[in-house]
Amino acid sequence: MYEVMYPQAFEQAQQIQQKILGSLPKELIAEEDALPFVIRQYKKKDSLKALRALYEFSNRINEMFLMFLACGKGCSACCSLKQIQIFELEALYIEKVTGKKRRNSPLLSSDIENQACPFLTDGCCNIYNHRPYACRKHFSMVSSMWCQHDVPDSFEFPMIVFDGIERGLFALAHRSGKSRILDIRQVFEG
Question: How far apart are alpha carbons 149 and 81 in whole angstroms?
C-alpha cells in the first residue's frame, strides 16, 4: 500500500518544501543566517537566556509556514520516535522553566525503547512552548499517516533545515559546557 502512495506523497512534500522556502522573507533568512553570530554575543552565564532567544526565533520562522504542515494539536506520532535527542543545556532549560526535575542519573538507551516522550499527555505536549529544538524542527509536510509507527523507515521525505539555528544551538551548547546529547526520555520521568 505505502509503495504505491509514496511517489505522489514525496512529490507533494517537495512542492510544499518549495512553497515554504519561497514564502520566507529574505530579511528573515538573512537574520537566520546571522543567528550563530548573535548567539555568540551572549555571555556563558546567559546561556539559558540565549537558548530562549534561539527558540523564540525558531517560533517566528515556524509560524510563517504552519499552514503548509500536516501537524496539529493531538498529532503525536513523532513523540514516540526512536530518538528524541536534546542537549544537556536544553534539559536544564526545561527543568528551569517547567519546574520538572531531571532524573538523578540518566537512564540507559535500552531502558527507553518504545516509550513516548515524558511530556506527552493525552496526545498533547505539555511543554509545547518550552519544547527542545529537536521537536521544533520535526514536522510533516504530508499526511500524518506517514508518521505512524507501522510505516517502514525506508520512506524518507524532504526536510527543511535551518542551518543558522542549528549552528547557533550547537555553538551555544558547546560554549555553555552542556553539550552532552541525551534522549529526553533518559532525562525526565513520565
Answer: 8
Q: 94 Cβ partners below 8 Å, 6+ apart?
A: 86, 100, 127, 130, 132, 188
Residues in contact with 183: Cβ distance below 8 Å, sequence separation at least 6, in sequence order? 83, 84, 85, 86, 109, 112
Beta bridge partners of 121: 124
Tell me the three state secondary structure of residue 124.
strand
Consecutive 10-residue averages of pLDDT for the chain (190 residues) = 92 95 95 95 95 96 90 84 91 96 90 88 93 93 85 87 96 96 93
d(Cα 186, Cα 183) in Å, to the nearest integer? 5
Task: Answer yes or no: are the C-beta atoms of 12 and 140 closer than 8 Å.
Answer: no
